[in-house]
Amino acid sequence: MAAIDHVHEHHGPLEFTPAQRLRMNRVGFWLFIVSEVFLFSGILVARITLLGGTRPELDQVLGLVITAILLVSSFFVNRAEVAIAYNDRRNFMISLAIAIIMGIIFTGGVGYEWSIAHQGPDESIAFGMFFFMTGMHALHVITGVLFLMIVFYNGMKGHYDAEKHFGVEASAIYWHFVDVVWVFFYVSLYLVGTVAEAH
Amino acid sequence: MDQEFKKSPPYFKGFAVLVILGILTGIEYYFGTKESPSVIFLAVLALIKAAFIVNYYMNISRLWSTEDHH
């Protein structure tokens, strides 16, 4: 009988401590981020292979401004995460709201860059790459904004506190990852190489 | 004592990282918009920026930390 009880004990539903669950969530989310690294690395390699030492002719000031907006938004997402870790709900909500607005402004900036582009995506390889890279990145920014909006909504309902806020942590990691991608995309699209000849 | 510490979130670190990222971006822009920028130099700057974000904003070290709760 004791042996049967012992077997049941090991075949019942698995139960994890909150600490174990947190570690598994973290590892799982970081594995997802690694899969995204492969995606964006492939895109970056495509840009290097197809364009080499050339780049599309883009508005440099606009590029710098949207880059700054994304970097500052990352700061506010970090601030939101730090705030909730210390139960500072007011700064958590304010910082999150600012980050969401900045994410929307960034997407608008990319949209404006698209509208003033000298060529369409099918008119040159340089601009084809530009639309592909910024489009893929903007798609992730929009996803990140939606992610932050869900966290904001949950935050309004008081779902997070200093002890329990993995949703905030995950959305922050995702948002910062999108920022890291832009760090490389900005350099490769706006700064590296000489302007490609229009043909 | 611990409660007292918990009342003041360490916001400064995030701001310091932002300032560093801003300076590095400014350097990138300055050299990148010159006649023939060094690809290696720009790539190294981008890698440094990415390292700052991954380490200080994404807190990658939490993956191997023994922290048992948030």
Mean pLDDT over the residues of chain B: 87
Number of domains of chain A: 1
Low-confidence stretches of chain A: none
Strand content of chain B: under 5%
Strands of the biggest beta sheet of chain A: in what spatial order? 1-2
Integer average pLDDT of chain A: 92
Structure commentary:
The complex is a heterodimer of chains A (199) and B (70). By secondary structure, chain A is mostly helical. Chain A has a single domain (60-199), classed as Up-down Bundle (Four Helix Bundle (Hemerythrin (Met), subunit A)). Chain A has helices at residues 2-11, 18-51, 60-85, 89-115, 125-156, 166-191, and strands at residues 54-55, 194-195. Chain A starts with a helix and ends with a strand. Chain A has a two-stranded parallel ribbon. With 70 residues, chain B is mainly alpha-helical. Chain B has a domain at 35-59. Helix content of chain B is 66%, strand content 0%. Chain B has 3 helices and no strands. In chain B, α2 (11-32) runs antiparallel to α3. The longest helix of chain B has 22 residues, at 11-32. In chain B, 23% of the residues are buried. Chains A and B meet through α2, α3 and α6 of A and α2 and α3 of B.
Defining traits:
heterodimer, A: 199 residues, mainly alpha, Four Helix Bundle (Hemerythrin (Met), subunit A), two-stranded parallel sheet, 6 helices, 2 strands, B: 70 residues, 3 helices, 0% strand, elongated, disordered N terminus
Task: Offer a concise description of the structure.
The complex is a heterodimer of chains A (199) and B (70). With 199 residues, chain A is mainly alpha-helical.
List the helices and strands and how they pair.
The complex is a heterodimer of chains A (199) and B (70).
Chain A: H1 2-11, H2 18-51, E1 54-55, H3 60-85, H4 89-115, H5 125-156, H6 166-191, E2 194-195
Helix pairs in contact in A: 2-5, 2-6, 3-4, 3-6, 4-5, 5-6
Chain B: H1 2-6, H2 11-32, H3 39-57
Helix pairs in contact in B: 2-3
